[in-house]
Amino acid sequence: MILHETINLLKNKYKDYIETLTISEVRIGVFMTAIKLSDNSYGISSTVPNIQMNCNKKNRDFGDFTPNNIVGKKVIDLLETTKQNGIIDTLTVAVLNAVSSRIIENSNYKILSNTDPIDLIDLNSGKTITIVGAFHSYIQKISATNSKLYVLELNEDAFMEDDKKYYVPTSDYPKILPISDVVLITGLTLVNNTLDDLLKTVKPETQIIVSGPSSSFIPDVLFANNVKIIGSLKITNPELMLKVISEAGAGYHLFNYCAEKICIVND
User: Fold this and answer.
1) What is the pTM of this model?
2) CB atoms within 10 A of CB 62
3) Which of 1, 126, 215, 226 is spaced 20 to 30 A from 86 at the CA atom?
4) 2-105: CATH number
């Protein structure tokens, strides 16, 4: 899996750095989760809640990475935990993004500042473009061109009424992705562990883009899986970011107040 491969890469290549880090602060908001690490690096992830909370008294968990047992924990312990639930997945991606922020900043990756991935796509060539996730701004831009548009989404109610004609149930991805020239995938698929299956069905010549705050970790493994562009972010005001996420902030709030869009390009 892409996340596991990225974790192994970071542990092998930056072992000394990662083993010094602890979690200093956590904000788990309705839409986004933020992490501050002991070296003052920050990371963000979409929040994936636990599908089912165990209310039976004997099954209640008060151990590591549960409420009141996250701050102060070692980053390496989170990356190596065998626990599996939505909050663990969320925290893991946020930590990966925090750890990666300093590495990316001091790397030779090709980074385009103040750039949205949609600006790097040729929208006027009559291609078939599939979006995984109901990005409303992307739907509006692509639907205004001569491109053939599909939008894979779990919930049809996530669409504006005029956009429902582009809706395709997520379960149909094996039919839609192989006929797509461009595939734009939400970074949430990294958190809910669905990206790997999606990428397996895309043809090699397809232009693959992964976009969203959750996709802000080092791009090596994504690039190795034929991803051409990563739409990421750079946090410009960390303390304000923590506040915004605590107040139910979503990605567009971050870009308005405390972050800028960047693209990492696979040459």
Assistant:
1) 0.93
2) 8
3) 226
4) 3.30.390
